Amino acid sequence: MLPLNLSPMATMFIFSLLIMIKTDALKKLFPVTCFYLHFLLLQGMFLVFDLDKFYDAPDSYILAGCTGTFPVTVYGSFLPRHVFYRFHALCAYLRCIFVALCVLFLWPSFDVILADQVSVVIPLMKLKKSMKVVFYCHFPDLLLAHHTTVLRRLYRKPIDFVEEITTGMADMILVNSKFTASTFANTFKRLHAQGIRPAVLYPAVNVDQFDEPHSYKLNFLSINRFERKKNIELAVSAFAKLHNLEEHALQSQKLNEATLTIAGGYDSRLRENVEYLDELKHLAEREGVSSRISFVTSCSTAERNKLLSQCLCVIYTPKDEHFGIVPLEAMAAHKPVIACNSGGPVETVKDAETGFLCDPTPEDFSLAMAKLIQDPQMASRMGGEARKHVAELFSTKTFGQHLNQYLMSITGSKED
């Protein structure tokens, strides 16, 4: 067993699972023995959480959930993630198969396997007839892969086929939004024709990590990875457009105080990250607003929370985002959100109440930004409503309750 530091989102996801799952057999703290199998491909590890040990020392696990450190067993870390920076999907499948075999032969049977993102393990887990498999699909992987050349299409065809077939073998499929559920139906047409309908389980945020802000600046904050699909140039162009909004007659003093901060994950080893950051800086120079835009790369959780506390609102620019955790974090931090009127934000942001849902154009985004510059108290009121909204529907407690209900239904157990 080895301690592994997890992100706040991952920690709370797992911690919610720990505190909500029960077991009738042991007659202890939980009604279902559950084993959580989570593949962190980006970390290059596979984690095995032994919940049986939870029953012997629950206090230590609760403390681990609060601090973000869990005892885990790691399998497959010696296997490559790629072959000369190619065949990432194939390597991921092989690594997942390896850890699934380790679970089958080295661990006892479990009532429920909760598999995340990589469906190839499902038929292996189903070899033990007594185990139920719940698959949490964030988004169909075949839609995230490139099919731009003949060779790529030939390489992906069997992988895409296996993804659909194995996904359909799960006893229950969960997705992260109604948008993803719709995409799932349109992508996996064979499964849809068979009557397979995924249930929606929204991701959650730990609202308690965000304190109520007591002061703010006229600063707009964008938080995203530095990837082109995140459409961050929309934030830059919208910010530049503020100077041309005659109909709102923005006071020049307020406008001069307005700034934009662009923060997010950045890896200098990734060509796209490096190129896209340069593109954004050049765009800011062309638009004449480079002196009022700050770029923050790979900020820590504490730095992110400080930026959230001090900003006026958060600008969320991805179009057709599968879900989008940033709007939830912003609203949990008492900040309104300006986002595209598509994808996950349509389900999380209440238009004109906790933020604004806009067409993905600089003009539409800048109009929403101008409203908040003119009336900062509106941002404060919206932020208060946003916090209540997230605490009610997207907290880790709510997530745990919904997950518990799904697990009870799949195992046929009754909640106490």
TrEMBL record:
GO terms for molecular function: GDP-Man:Man(1)GlcNAc(2)-PP-Dol alpha-1,3-mannosyltransferase activity; GDP-Man:Man(2)GlcNAc(2)-PP-Dol alpha-1,6-mannosyltransferase activity. Keywords: Glycosyltransferase, Membrane, Transferase, Transmembrane, Transmembrane helix. Pathway: Protein modification; protein glycosylation. The keyword Ribonucleoprotein does not apply. It is found in: Endoplasmic reticulum membrane. It is a single-pass membrane protein. Residues 219-389 form the Glycosyl transferase family domain. It catalyses: a beta-D-Man-(1->4)-beta-D-GlcNAc-(1->4)-alpha-D-GlcNAc-diphospho-di-trans,poly-cis-dolichol + GDP-alpha-D-mannose = an alpha-D-Man-(1->3)-beta-D-Man-(1->4)-beta-D-GlcNAc-(1->4)-alpha-D-GlcNAc-diphospho-di-trans,poly-cis-dolichol + GDP + H(+); an alpha-D-Man-(1->3)-beta-D-Man-(1->4)-beta-D-GlcNAc-(1->4)-alpha-D-GlcNAc-diphospho-di-trans,poly-cis-dolichol + GDP-alpha-D-mannose = an alpha-D-Man-(1->3)-[alpha-D-Man-(1->6)]-beta-D-Man-(1->4)-beta-D-GlcNAc-(1->4)-alpha-D-GlcNAc-diphospho-di-trans,poly-cis-dolichol + GDP + H(+). GO terms for cellular component: endoplasmic reticulum membrane. The chain crosses the membrane at residues 6-22, 29-49, 61-80, 92-110. Its EC number is 2.4.1.132, 2.4.1.257. It holds the Pfam family Glycos_transf_1. Belongs to the glycosyltransferase group 1 family. Mannosylates Man(2)GlcNAc(2)-dolichol diphosphate and Man(1)GlcNAc(2)-dolichol diphosphate to form Man(3)GlcNAc(2)-dolichol diphosphate. This is Alpha-1,3/1,6-mannosyltransferase ALG2. It comes from Populus alba x Populus x berolinensis. The lineage of its organism: Eukaryota, Viridiplantae, Streptophyta, Embryophyta, Tracheophyta.
